[in-house]
Design goal:
The chain is 72% helix and 0% strand. Helix 4 crosses helix 8 and helix 8 runs antiparallel to helix 11. It starts with a helix and ends in a 6-residue tail after the last helix. The chain has a domain of 169 residues: MetI-like (MetI-like fold, Orthogonal Bundle), CATH 1.10.3720.10. By secondary structure, it is mainly α.
Amino acid sequence: MALYSTHTGNKPIKYIRNTTIIIVLLLFALATLFPIYFMIISSFGDPVEAGALSYSLWPSKISLDSYKFFFDYSEHSYRWLLNSLIVAGCVTISNVVFATLAGYAFSKIRFKGRTVLFFVLLCAMMIPYQVTQVPLYILIVNVFQIENTYRALIMPGLVTVYNIFLAKQFMTSIPTEILECAKVEGCNQLQIFIRVIVPLSKTVMAVMAILTFMESWNTFFWPFLVTNTMDMQTIQVGLKNFRFANTTYFAPMMAGATISALPMFILFFSLQKYFLEGVTVGAVKG
């Protein structure tokens, strides 16, 4: 009888604890989703209303005028989206390819100076991004003289140290016995990489693709530095053209921000299963 009373007495405490956890998680979710909601709902407002700085949680009129205003305002609106897609796509593909190759080399191939070189890369990763902007700008503009081109937008981000580190750490967990079996079967290093490493590394490659695409797509400072004409601006830089000295076309700007967020949502939801696989990697032994 005492045991039954103790067991039933814990039920209210457990219920209160679970309810509290759910409420806290819901508050965090609302705080995370509110900026996205505000961006989307503001994009359906009237351009004149937004220009008068009339902000509200629900616009007085729901219309697509701001989206029409965004595309009709400048003939470069479509070009901004295309530029962002080209730059982010090239940077993402190059990072996945080069970082995977470098990660394989650092994790599975023994060569002289491997530890020292990887240590140098880790030291480079600790340098703040802003510190390298001035020498990088001088290199692009004065040395290579490729300002206001796709090369200037893409070359600095061809591969990042973080992605190399991520790939290397993941591939270290791949059993070396699998590679030895492939060598016994007559595979060379390239065949081992393509037939063994790549299929086993889909999870980390998907993570690198999502993170790199989001970072490249949302980058503002570097494209702002190396572009001086509207036809070479990316979408993030192009949105600043909706802000003037006396007013800001807030609703059209939010419409452009909503459109620019769509590729990231599509990429994330199309590759989210690899995130789930990444969570369960190593959870089961045997």
